[in-house]
Amino acid sequence: MGILNVTPDSFSDGGRFVSKDAVRRQVDAMVAAGADMIDIGGESTRPGAPEVSLQEELDRVLPVMEWVKSHCDAYVSVDTYKPQVMKESIALSVDMINDINALESDGAVELVADSGVAVCLMHKKGTPKNMQANPVYENGVFNEVFKYLAARADACVQQGVKPEAITLDPGFGFGKTLTHNIELFERLEMFSELQYPLLVGVSRKRMIGELLGDVPVDERVIGSVAAASLAALKGAKILRVHDVAETVQALKVTMALL
Ligand code: 7PM
Prior knowledge:
Layout: E1 2-5, H1 20-32, E2 37-41, H2 54-71, E3 75-79, H3 83-91, E4 96-99, H4 108-115, E5 118-122, H5 141-158, E6 166-169, H6 178-186, E7 199-200, H7 206-211, H8 221-233, E8 238-239, H9 244-257
Parallel strand pairs: 1-2, 2-3, 3-4, 4-5, 5-6, 7-8
Helix pairs in contact: 2-3, 3-4, 8-9
Bound molecules: ligand 7PM.
Residues 3, 44-46, 79, 98, 100, 120, 122, 169, 171-172, 199, 201, 205, 240 line the site of ligand 7PM.
């Protein structure tokens, strides 16, 4: 899964707007490099980032989605927790809803159940604004994340989501310290007990920077690729990454030699 952040700071036209050409070039590059799915996001969930209005998010995401769907045969997911964005994406035949809120927003489960669209349910602790303040897991981070994902998957199935539509994600970095992230990664293979495919997103995240001695985001590619390969060895089925070419090469070699 290649990450496409449709935000002015990712695809600047030199000002406040998103350059359409730059977005399209990025999609073409990721697909050519072997991405099977493009994850379109219109709102940065960075701690402390300004919230984006519903209309702004729709204006950023929907035209790109329409273009990707008509232009290539990659799957498309939408990174959103807003039911209205889900609804309008579903109308454009989006393939998966990628929700950091695990469909906890009002009406979200019903939208996914009624449409039959696939969904990724992610764990996070707190809100993007406060989640890194001082996360504490009384019964251990693995146990809490495991129980949460099992409960959310059950609740969704109860409300009509087909089990085969569900993917789970432990949500690296979302309300987790480096130690928490390491504990989760150590036991990553145990999530396969839940019988749902697992998605892992660690690409360029702070945990990678910290493991390398606080390197900046543009120096986290090799560490991210190493983590993605290990996640695949531990059973992850979808890897959410910025650096598609690098990750695909690493995965091809890793899996060929396994
Ligand atoms: C700032 C902070 C900008 C965090 C971007 C992010 C995930 C996701 C994101 C993930 C799933 C990032 C994150 N991360 N969706 N969306 N899993 N399913 O680093 O780990 O890309 S946004």
